[in-house]
Specification:
Chain lengths: 142, 100
């Protein structure tokens, strides 16, 4: 299960809506080994595309170095699908290289930049195998 | 003359779980050969058809080697090499997923 606080959930949804119709992407970092996503880092989609996302390679290195300095890891890696459902594509599965991360997909297909609900789902993607998991939004107790 | 190479989580199965390993070489290409000698299987995860995989990033002293000569990039004692898989994906299937 993925547990995410309300403010981070809202920020991810807002990012996805803002960047629609291009895909939005980013991470939520957390203390190494904690499985607690605590620091939202929206990233620029260097591909600037409605069907593809990629972190800029220089920004990717800066992000990881910052996480290493803080003893963090990417607990959540998220991106949006803007015309299709929030389910990992073949591309998503082939390029999923963080076996410890929760892969979050947000679909903005229904309402685009406008207000209205989005599809927000989370998966584990390990060795090409996709497992959906529950998402619990709310302030974490511990 | 060791050069420290930072290994991403997904490739640590090749390094016995080590986050960083030492290697030698005058170029990135030679360095990867040396890595392969001590950690068999690693080269195939970095290279494809003799070139760096599209969705694997390698940095020498914070510079993406795609901008510094690729596999011919010179490396020397004390340099820091970082390997990071791209964070990428998307709804479209036109992009070629990294082969495994």
């Amino acid at each position: 299960m993925l547990r995410l606080d309300q403010a981070t959930y809202d920020a991810i949804v807002a990012h996805a809506k803002r960047d629609h119709p291009d895909e939005a992407c980013g991470i939520v970092a957390g203390a190494e080994g904690s499985d607690v996503p605590s620091r939202h880092v929206p990233m620029i989609n260097a591909a600037g595309s409605p069907t593809f996302y990629e972190f800029d390679s220089t920004e990717l290195l800066a992000l990881y170095k910052e996480m290493w300095d803080r003893d963090e890891e990417p607990v959540v890696i998220y991106h949006s699908h803007t015309a299709t459902e929030a389910y990992p594509s073949r591309t998503d599965i082939g390029l999923a290289n963080e076996p410890g991360a929760h892969y979050v997909l947000v679909s903005t297909a229904a309402h685009g930049n406008s207000e209205g609900p989005v599809e927000f789902r989370s998966y584990r993607i390990i060795d090409g195998n996709v497992t959906e998991e529950d998402v619990a939004i709310g302030d974490t107790e511990n | 003359m060791p050069i420290e190479v930072r290994i991403p989580t997904i490739l640590r199965t090749y390094t016995g779980g080590e986050k960083a390993v030492n290697a030698d070489g005058a170029t990135l290409s030679a360095l990867i050969d040396d890595l392969e000698a001590n950690h068999p299987g690693l080269r195939d995860r970095l290279l494809e058809n003799g070139d760096l995989r599209r969705f694997v990033n390698v940095y020498v002293n914070d510079e993406d080697v795609r901008f510094t000569g690729g596999l011919e990039t010179a490396v020397a004692d004390g340099d820091q090499v970082v390997v990071l898989p791209a964070v990428a994906g998307g709804a479209g299937d036109q992009a070629e997923p990294a082969a495994r």
